[in-house]
Write a structure and sequence with these properties.
The protein is mainly β. 9% of the residues lie in helices and 40% in strands.
Length: 166
């Protein structure tokens, strides 16, 4: 039986370009922020907007991918776990805390046209494919059990991608 669950899923916009650095052991780490917003009616019936800022940290190959493709303002899906770090402040001697989301999966959302400032996908912009971390190769997705790579057809395949709820 599981002793607990620590899982975070966010859809929001990047507040800054990712900052990539390398640890002393040679591992890549990328830090950035993501803003999520919600609208609600207050007690007087007026609509209010609330924005929450989340610190994100990604490690290894995912950190490199985030640094290469993500830009400020880009809409993104982040999945990961909450982690709180503590340290002693050198100046004041006080104990400091930071809660962040350790990213384990990332997907870029929206199209390059919607992102502004050119918004493309860096080097991947030429193919107009959306890079995703842990994405299955295209030919593996379309291959049938018999090894035939032809596209399936029929009524089930007539559904447009825009009709999907996600």
């Amino acid at each position: 039986m599981a002793k607990g669950l620590n899982k975070v899923m966010l859809i929001g916009h990047l507040g800054n370009d990712p900052e990539l650095r390398t640890t002393a052991s040679g591992q890549s780490v990328s830090n950035f922020t993501v803003a999520t917003s919600e609208n609600f009616k207050d007690a007087s019936g007026s609509w209010q907007d609330r924005t929450e800022w989340h610190r994100i940290v990604a490690w290894g190959k995912l950190a490199e991918i985030c640094n290469q493709y993500l830009k400020k303002g880009r809409q993104v899906y982040i999945e990961g776990r909450l982690q709180t770090r503590s340290w002693d402040d050198n100046k004041s001697g006080e104990k400091r805390y930071a809660t962040e989301i350790v990213c384990t999966d990332m997907q870029m959302l929206g199209s390059p046209k919607e992102q502004g400032n050119g918004g493309g996908y860096g080097d991947a912009g030429h193919s107009q494919e959306r890079p995703q971390y842990n994405q299955m190769p295209r030919d593996a997705r379309q291959q049938s059990p018999s090894g035939n790579t032809s596209q399936p057809s029929g009524p089930a395949m007539e559904q447009d991608k825009d009709d999907l709820p996600f």
